[in-house]
Write a structure and sequence with these properties.
31% of the residues are buried. β3 and β4 form a beta hairpin. The chain is α+β, with helices and mostly antiparallel strands. 30% of the residues lie in helices and 25% in strands. The chain has a 7-stranded mixed beta sheet, sandwiched between helices. It folds into 2 domains: 62 residues, no CATH class; 98 residues, Gcn5-related N-acetyltransferase (GNAT) (Aminopeptidase). The radius of gyration is 16 Å and the shape is globular.
């Protein structure tokens, strides 16, 4: 397969109502962050090829999540398998926008070994429901053209391009990869 050009893109869902519901397959369950699960988070990101090394993962976790660690038990979600191994994660995070907190779907990953088993949509559903329970009214996310299958899933969940004019090349490539117009 031809290598896909990398462009950052952003997406937004302007409401937290009518989130498509999906159940986890049998043998999997959710759990929230507890102190000490930073290593599991790093291993998932490494297993998904989202990072290049354990050191990089530890640095990202420390920089991004440690300042908010006291809230992660309500925001960072894991999926674990029958053996209680953490194999996927997403975080119902936030950013400041116009002096208001806006929900941000952050660092979503499933280990390659567990991909294709019907976990992504339930994880996305659970994370968005968590954001809704935390009181958020809209949600943004950052992704990239190399994750075009995930972009297609986000579109099916009601996300649309955010600031499309700032990353037009990426959106044009995604329209080509997904063989559809993205508005």
């Amino acid at each position: 397969m031809k290598e896909i050009d990398f462009y950052d893109v952003y997406m937004i869902r302007n409401t937290m109502e009518e989130i498509p519901a999906y159940e986890l397959p049998n043998g999997y369950s959710y759990c929230f962050y507890q102190q000490g699960l930073d290593e599991d988070w790093t291993n998932i990101q490494l297993g998904a090829n989202a990072i290049d090394s354990v050191i990089e993962g530890k640095q990202i976790f420390e920089r991004t999540f440690v300042p908010h660690e006291h809230t992660l038990n309500k925001r960072m979600i894991f999926i674990e398998n029958e053996n209680k191994e953490k194999i996927a994660t997403a975080t119902a995070f936030f950013i400041e926008e116009e002096n208001k907190e806006v929900a941000k779907l952050h660092w979503i990953a499933t280990t390659q070994k567990e991909q294709g088993k019907g976990l992504a949509k339930p994880l996305l559903y659970k994370t968005m429901e968590t954001m809704k329970q935390l009181g958020y009214k809209k949600c943004i996310l950052h992704t990239q053209t190399t994750s075009y299958k995930a972009v297609n899933m986000y579109l099916s969940f009601g996300f649309i391009p955010y600031e499309k004019e700032k990353n037009q090349q990426g959106w044009l490539l995604l329209e080509e990869l997904l063989d559809k117009k993205i508005t």
